Amino acid sequence: MDSPGRASHSCHGSVTKSFDTVTFSHATIPVPVVPDNFASSPALDDSPPVAAGSTLTLLDRDHSILAFNERVLDWAYRPEVPLIERLRYLCIVSSNLDEFFEVRMAPHLAANTAGDRKGNYTVDSFARLSEAAHTLVGRQYALYNGELMPTFAKEGIHVISHGERNAAQRKWLSDYYEREVRPLLIPVGLDPAHPFPQVANKSLNFIVRLSGKDAFGRENPIAIVKVPRVLPRMIAMPARVSGGKKLFVALSSIVRAHLQGMFPGREVGDFSQFRVTRHSDLAVDEEDVKNLRTALRQGLQHRHFGQAVRLEVSASCAESLASFLLAQFDLPPEALYRVHGPVNLARLTQLIDLLEEPQLRFAPYQASYPVSLSPGQSFFERLQAGDALIHQPFESFEGVLAFLREAVQDPQVLAIKQTIYRTGADSELMELLREAVRRGKEVTVVVELKARFDEEANINWAEMLESIGAQVVYGVVGLKTHAKMLLVTRREGKAMRRYGHLSTGNYNPRTARLYTDISHLTADPLLTADMEAVFVHMASQSRLPKLNRMWMAPFDLHRNLIARIDALGAAAVRGVPARIVVKMNALTDEALIASLVGAGRKGVKIDLIVRGACTLPAQVPGLTDNIRVRSVIGRFLEHSRVFYFREGEDEALYLSSADWMNRNMLRRIELAWPVTDPVLRQRLIDECLVAYLHDGRDAWDLGADGSYRRVNHDTHQGEEGAPRAVQAHGAQTALMVRYSSRGRSRAASRV
After folding, report:
1. How many of the other CB atoms lie within 10 Å of CB of 26?
2. Which residues, in sequence order, are bridge partners of residue 646?
3. Which of 482, 501, 537, 716 is catalytic?
4. Is 631 helix (H, G, I), strand (E, B) or coil?
């Protein structure tokens, strides 16, 4: 095995229906540490034979994505979660569903339109997926109307409709409408000279039925009102008209109340707000364009007007209006979603931003400075002594920025190379790279222009850096650059030395506070030489040399993972205890799944911690008995990828930018690299694997039937010396407590 090490006790237990015990340090909330009572199970040489011809039916990926959103929605249902945060989870699900429809629904819809009955996308697949999506949306609005809004009302927070407003409030809103809204609205009456207007993706619109005749004596009974995106969707009423209460009004309610005034001389009859979702995945033939950046920028102009895939209308929308809209957007009835409330729940994040009640939010979490680092110490001196890890967001991303900041300011640093996938529109990191160019350093940036829904920000950064003299490249034609690395070359005496940062996540300070990721800082000459080789390969398109430690997609990452899994299967057959624990965001690659199933049937004990889509059913008798799959949904978005393999007493752990999906293995530039320091490796085992295998509050276990069941019990029942009532712990909560206490201890030691 690459980078063998003496096996720890942590991830070596058998996969059983019950949870292995784990000891806790004495704290208000238990903090998981490495248990010392894991026992390995023998290979299943005497396991019952599987009937000839038995095959494993994989789960459907798209339904698995919807199931993930059901698990996220569970947080909005939990009464112990602060009220504003419950609303936030509701908004997250709506935002996720928007992306699901924008990216995943089009082929199902096309198959339905064509009447296809065979293949992965069929009339039946569209019907089943639509039914599941309708069920999820129905649950959202039932929660919104039946529980969240009434609970907000009990807290004195109201989103009031037109019928609930008094005269003073209506007067204030009328003035607001005339001043802020009406100047931006242009109602369009439909006739041969005014065909149905282009309606942008996910925009707010109204359809109105009119009686009477227009100014020219013609009957054009349908009008469309498009509401500009620049207008805020939630408006707070001032205290002078709110009676001291916290009153808010939806923009859609304001427009609805003033529809009649938009059509003087006509009578407004039926009307409804509506919103159309369009297919928005940019498709650019890189082999057929001379300038990818220009082609993408042109594609962005058309994204808002792609194929319609979903239509949302008010629940009260007249059938005739709904049918008219479906015909305009060429959609079947299954694509119509009647909602009891605003057609875009995701925009309720604006209400969250307007509220100031700290008691209705999660207690603020202040990330500690990375424990592997010391404030004020030179990163170069620190990394010469050994590698360092940052476990985000429990530890601050500031450590990464500080590393780059020192590199930019150090006159001995000659070159900086970095990959850019998602940095956000306002990025200190990008400003630091600009400053590095200004100081005369060689700056090479590999920008992934095709990072979905971040294309425009990445194009802007690429153009800015290119304009000031940075070397900007766009990776390899046909492959998305998903690897995250930063390499610094420094003159030290007569030699050059490299220092590197590798990450499972993005260089985005905002998401670094919300996503769990691992940053790995190193001066390991073999690992940094691999980084240099990868940068040269992406910039020059030259043949990639054999790497020392890294595995790289699309070349050998897939092959090496399969070989590692198969080797463990062979070891299990020989009677050697074998263990796999993998943490990732998605598992859909069929070749890797087949390898895992084969290894499990040979006796390898396998735990898969998969946050989102997983098409491998666990615990299927005779096929996946030795495979357990769980998903952990917490306050932070699980994002780190950690791959653990154990054969006998030898273990290896890899960090990676890649999920186990076909696209990541074969159509992206991805990296996996080993953590060879035994102390750091054990820390990752403890915090990224053991803690999640013993999560008794935020985990969901996948059953053989493809359904997830929430683990909501004490995972330490019967543990020797444990109190009778032990609170089930969540891995993230325990890690927050652990790092908060470490931060306080370090602060106290400096006093």
Report:
1. 6
2. 579, 651
3. 482
4. strand
Three-state DSSP class for 17? coil
User: How would you class 17 by CB atoms within 10 Å of its CB: exposed for 0-12, middle for 13-18, buried for 19 or more?
Assistant: exposed
With a CB cutoff of 8 Å and minimum separation 6, the contacts of 24 are 30, 31, 32, 33, 716, 722, 729
For residue range 428-454, list pLDDT tens digits in order.
878 888 889 889 999 888 877 654 445
pLDDT for 692-730, tens place per residue? 999 999 999 999 989 999 997 655 454 444 444 445 679
Contact 664, 644 (CB under 8 A): no
Token pair 């001196």: residue: 381
CA–CA distance from 400 to each of 151, 516, 521 (Å)?
41, 15, 9
> Which residue do the tokens 């599987």 mark?
50
Neighbours of 122 (CB within 10 A): 17
Burial of 673 (0-12, 13-18, 19+ CB in 10 A): buried
Where in 627-698 does DSSP place strands (E)? 627-632, 637-638, 641-647, 650-656, 668-674
Least confident of 102-116, 222-236, 445-459, 629-643: 445-459
What is the Cα–Cα distance from 562 to 593, expressed in whole angstroms? Answer: 9
In tens, the pLDDT along 202-248 reads 999 999 999 877 766 677 789 999 999 999 999 999 999 998 889 99
Please answer whether residues 210 and 223 qualify as being in contact, where contact means their C-beta atoms are separated by less than 8 angstroms: yes
| Tokens at 688, concatenated | 């990224």
Pairing of the two strands 605-610 and 188-189: unpaired
Residue 374 Cα distances to 39, 660, 729, angstroms: 38, 35, 30
Q: Which of 589, 667, 609 is nearest to 58 (CA)?
A: 589
Other Cβ atoms less than 10 A from the Cβ of 400: the count is 21
Active site residue 108: no
Please give the order of strands across the beta sheet that includes 188-189.
Answer: 188-189, 222-227, 204-211, 267-278, 308-314, 336-339
Measured at the alpha carbon of residue 654, what is the angle toward residues 652 and 656, in degrees to the nearest 5?
A: 170
Quick one: pLDDT at residue 510? 86
Nearest to 617 by CA among 602, 647, 636, 597: 597
Tokens in use for 162? 């037109």
487: phi then psi, degrees, rounded to nearest 5: -125, 130
How far apart are alpha carbons 338 and 134 in whole angstroms?
A: 9
Encoded tokens for 355: 């509220």
CA distance 298 to 326: 28
Task: Print burial letters for 436-468: b (CB count within 10 Å at least 16), e (below 16).
Answer: bbeeebebbbbbbbbbeebbebbbebbeebeee
Q: Which amino acid is at 196?
A: F
In angstroms, what is the C-alpha Rg of the chain?
28
Mark residue 178 as left, alpha or beta (left: phi above 0; alpha: psi -120 to 50; beta: remaining).
alpha
Containing H/E element for 525? helix 525-540
Instruction: Count CB-CB contacts under 10 A for residue 62.
Output: 21
